[in-house]
């Protein structure tokens, strides 16, 4: 083989290896769900963010994984992601439509509402400071953002018939659900704040913490606060 | 030494090296102790942190002369015993030197034995030096006024329970200055590790185990709490901040929190040194009350393949 041929072969091999490494890095290691940007939609110092929880996820190849969805502020379509961006020093009005059934909190302390304006959440319009999931079927998931001290127990449908007839196709548009609303202020500085469901709701995985609990875009995500 | 150099013309290299080593060590050790020593982590915010800083400094004081000795000999050899240009002759044959070997072994043995004794004394006199001692600690503070703080890890957050104040639980770690603290560290799921950096406290949080660590805060200020055991997707974000306040401020905060959190405390299971979150009896009751098929009190269906 000539020197030119050997050099070409070597170059092709190096390029191939680099390409594989880049593919692995970007496709697997650095991949993350899309980010819904609410910053352009803020007005008068506030912006509305709407999410939903689903008992399943029929839009991915993990149909039995519970999942959050975020409503796109422009198209109002439900997007399978848990990443969103909001502006700094802004009141965020969050609505979570909870379509899942009840699950007990592993640690009941997370039944307390914290970090919201007024220290309450509104469940179907009624102010609530805490939910005792160990006393009845009333909590499905949480929206917990430790960096801002936010903890929101998401109320669940409470009756047997509701829990036996949950929405079966994602994103849910009908079926038994509870609507939870709350507001909080974003800090003046920018930053990234991760959030999660603190209930280990990854059924079928060890102690419920695998699957959707350990994969971005399902039961955990992050809120990016854009510095003004 | 080269072949052309007569032995009687050689300077006393040993004396030279020894005097230089003594001079440098005697200079660098105090420089380190007084200039760098006070800044060595984790600081002196608590009894255990201060002990750790002192230990690091003592180790450095021992290590510095060793490092100086190695580098000095290296530099001296490069300077005085390097081959001259055009000199291709072999160096003189090397024979064993019993005096040097015995001295070397004696010094290193003495150092290692000293460090073993020093470490044991530091663990003993400092009640474990901030490390987890397991459920039955050997060393305890000699005080009847110990504040118990239960540290509960779960993916991916810390909560703290104060059994002497009605057992309220909170995400805020507030500690008093000057009072011995007993951390009862446990976990609700996987293995975490409670690391209160500025306090020099580090104890593994194992499910079903109470790992006890002691310290006494000596300074007011903020404490960073991190998980130092890889525990899952958000391990890197599993941190919290606590603070050390005056004893009076702590009492005020604790009494106030006890009252404010009373309704939450009533929802919590009775205080225990460990909890079994995979077996929650009320789960059974709740589901039976609702009419759903229960998992017999188990948090998860035991038929799940991945459930032990």
Short description:
Chain A is of the alpha+beta class and 228 residues long. Chain A has helices at residues 3-29, 160-164; strands at 35-37, 46-54, 67-71, 78-79, 83-87, 91-98, 121-123, 126-128, 139-145, 150-155, 178-185, 191-196, 220-226.
Task: Describe the 3D structure.
The complex is a heterodimer of chains A (228) and B (308). Chain A is built from two helices and 13 strands; from the N terminus they run αββββββββββαβββ. Chain A is α+β, with helices and mostly antiparallel strands and 228 residues long. Chain A folds into two domains: 1-31; 36-226, Immunoglobulin-like, CATH 2.60.40. In chain A, the strands form three sheets. In chain A, strands 4-3-2-6-11-7-8 form a seven-stranded mixed β-sheet, with no helix packed on it. A four-stranded mixed β-sheet of chain A has the order 1-5-13-12, with no helix packed on it. Chain A has a two-stranded antiparallel ribbon with strand order 9-10. The radius of gyration of chain A is 21 Å and the shape is globular. Chain B has six helices and ten strands. Chain B starts with 12 loop residues before the first helix and ends in an 18-residue tail after the last helix.
What's the alpha carbon Rg of chain A, rounded to whole Å? 21 Å
Major sheet summary line of chain B:
5 strands, mixed
Q: How many whole angstroms does the radius of gyration of chain B measure?
A: 29 Å
Question: End-to-end distance of chain A, in Å?
Answer: 62 Å
CATH-wise, what's the superfamily of the largest domain in chain A? Cupredoxins -  blue copper proteins
Can you give the mean pLDDT of chain A?
91
Number of β-strand runs of chain B:
10
What do the pLDDT scores of chain B average to? Answer: 88
Just name the CATH architecture of the largest domain in chain A. Answer: Sandwich
